[in-house]
Amino acid sequence: MSRARPGGSHRLGARPGEVIDRSRTIEFRWNGVTHTAHPGDTIASALAAAGVRVFARSYKYHRPRGLLTADIFDPGAILQVGDEPNVRAAHRLVEAGMDVRSQNTWPSLRYDVKAVNQLAGRFLATGFYYKTFIKPERLWPTYEKVLRRFVHAGEVSPDSEQPYFDKRYAHPDVLVAGGGPAGMAAAVAAARAGASVMLVEQEHQLGGHLRWGDAEDLRCRDELVAAVEAESNIEVLTDSVVAARYDDNWLAVVQRGLPHVAERLVKARAGTLVVAAGLIERPYVFAGNDLPGVMLSTAVRRLLNLYAVRPGSRAVVFTANPEGDAAAADLRAAGVDVVEVDARHGRTVVRATGRGGVEAVELSDGSRIEADLLVTAVGWTAPTSLLNMSGANPGYRPDAARFVPDPAATPAAVIAVGGIAGDGTRDELVAHADAAGREAAARALALAASRAGSADTRDPVAVPQLGLHHHPELFFALPTGGFVDMSEDVSAKDILTAVKEGYDSSELVKRYTTATMGPAQGKLETVNTVALVAHATGKTIAETGATTWRPMYTPITLGALAGRKFEPVRHSPMQPWHTSHKAAPLIAGQWIRPEHYGDPVAEVRNVRQNVGIIDVTPIGKLDLQGPDVAKLLNLLYVNKWSQLGIGRVRYGVMCAEDGVVLDDGVTGRLAENHYLMSTTSSGAGTVWEWAENWLQTEHPEWQVHVTPVTTAYASINVAGPKSRELLARLTDVDLDNAAFGYMNVRTGTIAGVADCVLWRIGFTGELSYELHVPASYGLHVWETLMATGADLGIAPFGVEAQRILRLEKGHLIVGQDTDGLTKAYSAGLDWAVKLDKPDFVGKPELAWQAARGEHPKLVGLRPLDTSVVPEEAAQIISDGGYIVGRITSSRLSPTLGRPICLGQVDAHLADPGTRLTVRLRNGSDTTVEVTAEHAHFDPEGERQRV
Amino acid sequence: MMLLTCPNCGARNVSEFRYVGEAKSRPDPETATPEQWRRYLYFHRNPAGWIKETWYHGSGCRRYFGIERNTVDNAQRPAGVTS
Amino acid sequence: MSDIAAAPIARTALSFPGPVRTTDGWETTARHAAGGLRLADLGPLVKLTVRGPADGSVRAALGTSFGHTVRPRGGPLAGALVVGSGPGEWLVLGAPGTGGELLAGVRSIIADSGEFASVVDVTHGRALVRLTGADTPLLLSKVCAVDLADRVVPDGAAFRSSVARVVTDVVRDDVDGTRSYLLHCERSSGQYLADSLVDAGIEYGIEVGAPTEHDDATGHPR
User: Which GO terms describe its molecular function (chain A) (predicted)?
Assistant: First the structure.
């Protein structure tokens, strides 16, 4: 392994505003070569200090690229760090031992130029996404491989460790996006006005452009930072970004640089959003503008003043503003030879030339200057996307050569401050931001007060508006050349071609060329793209308009969006027993249930022969109290409830207003005004809300209280011919058939546990008791049942055995044997529907269904070929090949030794004895016969009534 | 995510609520024609502007309530309890 | 009926690794937490839900309304914590084993009121934990979207919202000037909720353990 010269050949002496710690030196690797850096260096600044000029190859044409902006938006410095691709190397701080590699450099960073460019030119014309690789389709996989190779954009190993992503909520009164002078001043003013403030800065330090300014700038920065630190009410997040603004100031803030946390998504609900994003320097479009060595003036000043890196030795500074002049002065002070080209005097740069980097610069007057650095300072772009996301639509101002927000068109909850809002001296900016901060606090506190029920009595703060300084409009050189979007490798020529081909609006050009769609999300590219479109269409920039700014402000990781996931799971009190007895887990909604304990068929046989117990805790349970419960039951269920005696239970079916079956279950009457309703496991929440809906909105005069008690009870179904014998050993309830018959309810003690509810019902078709035990004792009762029933052959059974048992018995499952179109008569529930009741939910539709009588019907089906179990959802087809029904449930019955089904069929095919054709998944057909009853086993119900 | 103002709990994230629908009055099931009944079941005004809606605060007070919401900008104002 | 059944043991919704102990018929973790941020399982506490008119005699007798709490000094509910958990809805929390007295107390209040009101004992149907420590607002901000600032949720306030996507009653009930919250949810989600709280609390050094005398809900030494 080779080793670079320590210290860095381009490192300058100490600078007043530098952010590096020279007392320490750390090592990292760059494409296998060990380099050194100081803490505080970004990857890019450390490499630049070592004289590295080429960082990566461009996306489509594999052109060499170097630093352009030297910040997080730099399209030339997107690198692979260890297992992490697409790291913004001009933002990410160097850490000891980092393994940094360039991306997109197939076959290598240095030697791929010719071959790749020739290949690229053939395929990657304007709009190549739409033009090439279309036909023939069979070659798509090949194209994909070529493209993947071309645009490999980093690598992630499938073995990489999952970092800890986090999320949290925050409720600042005022959230300030941007920690430059205006943002800091606004934050301090808001905090002093009594607001809680979150101040979010994308870079690693507060200060914005003051950090690379003169001594006065640095003094101002220090004062503002000290003021921020003095306010305990300001939470400062650096290396963090306000990525998006949504309704009601819901702000997605991505926080980085935390210990133990890869990234944290802060979901901030701010009273007022203060947008202090500053200005972003705009690149200039000219031939050769992507050569390494072409940099923005802010990039140069960052390198010089923050990192003490000399970015070149002979510089041309193309300047149209004081910041460009300052960059020239800074370069001179660092010992760089500087030639200034002043746009304000009509001189412009038209071309940069060189192999692998800038060697010479050509001017509009035809002169040519040798240089290894070309600095441009041609204007500013206002990064207005947070304002656009707020509904404000900043307009283009030709006198200032940038888009500017209109305060009157900005929502009250959003205030723009600082450079994004206008120009001014440092003192003017701070004064304006101070007033804006006070106003932001006043608005936020008034909002909080109004949410707490108080009136808004504040006096608005007058915010001095900033003016606009004149700036020449400089976007591209003529004749046009060079790149508009360096991330996406879109050239000026591509934009002109797109317009010529008819894509004559910004939005169309964006999609056709992919300009502005790269990692900088348009911050460097949009205005130049719009200017070129305007030039090509003969319109003004204001007429042309920018493309829509959407989240994210800065690209963020998918991990940050995913965060920690909240996926509630629910367990019954017997779960520890199921786990230790190797139950196969079944995920049913949020519930984890035992599907079986190894052999569901044996579990079925044991229930038919001996006794089995199943954990049915997820069955929904609602405690109903009040004198009007019967009215509610009569309304919700299709059958009648007025005559239900105390101690009795009844099966009921609920339909929605469209007559479609909603849920079913049994409800028992425990006392005069006290009932316990059960629902399906999946319908527990729905039925509770359904009941509350009718009580709260249609019948508030009814005296009924509904309390969900689903998990107040552990529910255990004890089923099988020996269930009575087992229970008799454990309860004080008289189980004699005469005293406690089928479809009755009793309360009593089980295994020493008081206040248990026993229902004698039979989903499985066997003699069975459903025990509802106070949940804390569920495990105790379950274990006691298992121990007590050992001599009776007791065994647990799971959901699969229960499904088989109920299908043998022909009991339907709502949602499986019915669907979103199945009305009660189609489910074969004719016997339950009582149309002579005055009103119940779904009655009109059911009355019409009964009168029409042409509905599909749920029927029992017996396959004639006993070796074939038709799949659930298999279609039943007519002779002509039309679908006339489907299998809703099917199993091989262990009790009968043959396949059994339920299915829905068209009305004219529902008569017993009708033979039907079922198309199986493998394409073959089999014949089934409609049975007289849904029940295949014990249709008379003898076994459950004993 | 927008806020919805619950009359009992105050402004909360809308994810705490279930949208029940445009507030409607239920026709008399004894006398409604199929046309009237299905208009009640399936037809919605869906205006661009103010609309009276029913929401259910499932993660909070668990109450159904009516609110008026402007579908253009999500502005809200209280409405009487749905009846 | 035979008497082969052992004395019944009650289990709360939560279990944590390590030794357990049985107190008052309840099996709970035997770990002791003394750190600056602690989670205690208060599952054995008595929990009653009361429903009645939001503004009537029952409300007057219970002494609080939605969003607030009270600890009656005398009367049938002395020693309990009464939480206004919803409009016309209350949660009464009491020391383990006092269910009979509290139930009778609430029933007497209802009977005296002449109003339509009801009470359901949900001791076994809910999970209840207490989070105590200065960092609890930070921890909760990772799982709950409601602003916990003093002006919104002062000591003694209660609200219901989503906590780690589980509908949870949150009661601010500071202990000796230290931030403390009771979290009360439906039982089957309790273990998940506790696990989520522990996961969110790792960066603040959360410890899980048996309640100390200051950690119970009623505010009275046990």
Answer: oxidoreductase activity
